[in-house]
Structure formats: C-alpha cells, structure tokens
Specification:
Two copies of one chain form a homodimer. Chain A is α+β, with helices and mostly antiparallel strands. In chain A, 35% of the residues lie in helices and 24% in strands. In chain A, α4 (140-155) packs across α6 and α4 packs across α7 (211-218). Chain A binds a DNA duplex (30 and 30 nucleotides) through α6.
DNA sequence: CGGGCGCTTGAGTTAAATCAACACAAGTGG
DNA sequence: CCACTTGTGTTGATTTAACTCAAGCGCCCG
C-alpha cells in the first residue's frame, strides 16, 4: 500500500480550517478553465481543497513565467492594490472555497481567519524564496532535480519501488516555472532517467528510484569526483 | 540603545541579535552589520524607517541569492515555521521599528496593525512576482534595465537633468539579485551608458537620461525600427 | 601619496537556447 | 476499425548569450 509523504503541516488554515469548512459553498472548476486573470478586481481569495491550479504572469511579448502551482491547502488570489496580479487556471478539476476579500482588510471581523490568512501569506513568501534560489542560483539539471524533489516532498506517494509523483502540468509549464525551455527540461528528465535516479511511466508519472541521489543532483553534487574541485575563493 | 557591530562574522553576533530583539521602540544598526541570520528564531519583524537592508539566502556551496532590498516602509523578517528564512544585513546605517512576533499570531490583539502586516505581506508577494519575471523571463540587458527602472520608480529623486538614483548596493549584490555575474551587470551598465540612456557619477549614482528609453530596454524593445518586423506567426 | 578594493574591460569557453526532425499517443472522422 | 490529424514530448545539430578567467583602471581611504 502507499503512505503519503506530505504529512507536513498545511499551516495555512490549521486552527480555523474546520470553521471555514462548514461555512461557505464549494466552487468547482473544470480542468483547463480559468479562475481569474491578471488585472481582474479581487472579490475573493480561494482555498484550494482539491485539484491543482497554475499561477502565471505574461510579459507583453508573450514570455511567460509560472509563478506557482497551487495544491490543496494553498491559498491563491492575494490582491495587489485590489487587483489580481497573476492568471490562475485549473490544471485538473478543482474544488475551491472562496473567502470574501473584505476579510483581508478588516482584521476585527474574524481574527482567527485573518491570522490564518497572514500565515498563508507568510508561507507563500517562504515558498517563493525557495523558488528564487532555483531561478537565480541553479543550473538546468539542478533546477529539474530540485523541482521533482520538491514535488515528491510535498505531493508524493510512497510505493513499493520508490516515491511516486504525478505531475499534472506539462513540460512547458515546468519549463516556464524553472526559467528554462521545454527541450532543456526534457533533456534533464532523460538524463535523470538514464542515470537511474528516476523512472517515467509516461511523461506525467515519475517514480523516484533514489531520493538521496535525486537530492544530490538537486545540489549539483551528482558527480562525486570526476575532477578535484579547488575553490580557494570560498570564504572559510 | 545603539548596536555597534564591527563588521563581519556571524557566530560572534548570534547572541547579539537576540539582545537586539528585546530592545525597545527604535533600533539602530550600523552599515554592514547583520540584523538576523537564516535559521534564527523570529522574535520580531521590523519596519524599516530609514536606510536600506539586504535580504539574502545562500546555498551550501556558497552560491548566493539576494532576495530583496528593504527600503523605508518595507517590513522584513516574516517567519516561516517560526524561523527567519533569510539573512538580513544593513547596506547603510538603518533605523528600524521592531514589532513583536506575537502580534502576527494573534489577530485580535491589534487588528489594525495586523491588517497592515497582512497588507505588507501581500505587497511583498506582489513585489516578488515582479522579481520572478526578471529572473525567469528576461535576458541580462533587460534585467539590468528593469532593475534600474524599478529603483528609480520607487526611490529616485527628480533632478534637473533626469531622475537621480543612488544605489547603496554593490555590483555583486545587483548580480546576485538578478541571477547574473558581476561582470555581466557591469557590461550592461556600460552598454546603457554608451547608449546615452543613463549616466554614472561613480558606480553608485545613476542619472536616468531617458526614462522612456530605459523602459524600452527593460522590455527588450531597445531597437526601435532597424527594419520592419514581419511576424506572420504572431496571433492577432 | 600609495595601496587596496570594487569596478570595468577583454578573450575564450560553455551551458542553454534555438532550430529542426521525429516519435508517440489520443482523438476524430471517414 | 483504421487512416489521419493534432498535440505533446523527445532527440539531434547548431548558435549564442552569459559565464569564466584574467588583466587593468580608478576611486576612496588611510
């Protein structure tokens, strides 16, 4: 049988989740449909209860950045000056719980929910900082390995032959998330497969053969000693 | 109480930063001293009242990402699971106002302040998303032009001959903020100068000769019309 | 005034992008 | 049911933007 690896706290709505859960109506969204667009007035923020969404921003000339993938427990739709600052689309069928925007602005209305929202916002800041390390510091193989690892850590299932991760997004989404091209992402997947670190059941289903080796790849330590690394400039 | 930290090494100041945390209303920090380190327990968040701080994270192997530069009005130090997730250092002498962490967690204690903190957190999310576009989508000249423009928009002074921007951070900081090397940043500054878009009074003082042209550089539209662009593939 | 650090510039290298086929599965319609 | 289209992913060849290594410059501080 399987066991979820992601027993982590979804601290976003830990204490209040039960209260929230009873209150408002669910909202359902079909795969590939949009929840909101950049520039839309923010009427609600949304707690994702089931499914996966994709947050994106695009430049005038069409270049696209995937800002984040939203999984159950995540909150999406925080406003900037009252407006949505990303597009949000469903990658799978999605069930959401809307929270009225006014709750954000009036802390006295529902203090516990307000604190939960602040907590969710801080978690998002933290997640974005990890994402910065990927985009700014890592090379392509490290980015892809880090991506697979983070998906496994948060959303993987333990199977007999290793952690199993389903990737609801396409290669192009992964590429735009990591600041790479689709071709480079594909080559990195292939390299990891040929190294025996992962196996692929179709493009969207990844089995992690060795989490340790994946973690090493994520830090660029995949080549144990092809040549001596001599780094006199590094501070002690 | 004035905090005098002579310069450099973290272990020496770990305890000091805990003392800082208990200090009353206004807090001063000398240039090049640390406010906190990644992994420190969060006792306070800080409103920057004067000066500029730098938020950084480092990978095991020393690669560094500058997450953000904190200017007056910004709030720094939001916790993730109770811990600081970046280092924070003063680039200039800094004056701060500490806010006890418990205010984050108890929304009822001071609802207005709590709402302001949530607002600051959402602003930071928004700013980070802009940063993602830079890191993930833009090439080196666009990154540097975008950086100078954003500094000018937020912190520039209007002078007779154009907007004047002081850059308290060094080229290496800018490089680590943009995911480039120092050399590439320097070359991009030089290219903008030779193009007449900016002028430099020393490395840290930039005069923006033409904000429009800078904005075009930031979007990669620096070449106005060398010849007609014929793009049949672009959607209408 | 001299020394050092931060910045700039140059030459050569490389990692990732680009351009271009090709493979494969899923869906569609004849 | 099978041919055909379409979308998505993989692989290969080539180009290029940015990195690396190395030297030189200039400003600031002692």
């Amino acid at each position: 049988m399987y066991v979820t690896l992601s027993g982590e706290h979804r601290s976003a709505f830990r204490s209040t989740s039960r209260d929230i859960a009873t209150a408002p109506p669910h909202l359902k969204l079909a795969a590939n449909s949009a929840l909101y667009f950049e520039g839309d007035e923010v009427s609600h923020v949304y707690i994702i209860e089931d499914g996966v969404v994709r947050l994106t921003r695009v430049l005038e000339d069409g270049r696209r950045q995937v800002i984040a993938f939203g999984y159950p427990g995540d909150i999406v739709g925080f406003p900037a000056r009252g407006l949505h600052n990303t597009d949000c689309d469903a990658l799978t069928p999605v069930r959401l719980r809307p929270i009225r925007r006014c709750v954000l602005e009036d802390g006295a209305q529902d203090p516990d929910l307000h604190a939960a929202l602040l907590d969710a916002a801080m978690d998002e800041i933290s997640a974005m900082q990890d994402h910065f390390m990927m985009l700014g510091c890592k090379n392509a193989p490290e980015k892809v390995a880090s991506f697979i690892k983070s998906m496994a850590d948060r959303h993987g299932m333990m199977a007999a032959d290793g952690a199993n991760v389903h990737l609801p997004m396409g290669r192009a989404d992964i590429a735009d998330f990591l600041g790479l091209t689709m071709e480079t992402v594909s080559r990195c997947f292939t390299a990891l497969r040929k190294d025996g670190v992962i196996r692929l059941n179709g493009a969207q289903s990844v089995v992690i053969v060795s989490m340790e080796r994946l973690a090493r790849h994520a830090l660029g330590q995949n080549t144990p000693a092809p040549r001596e690394r001599h780094c006199p400039t590094l501070a002690a």
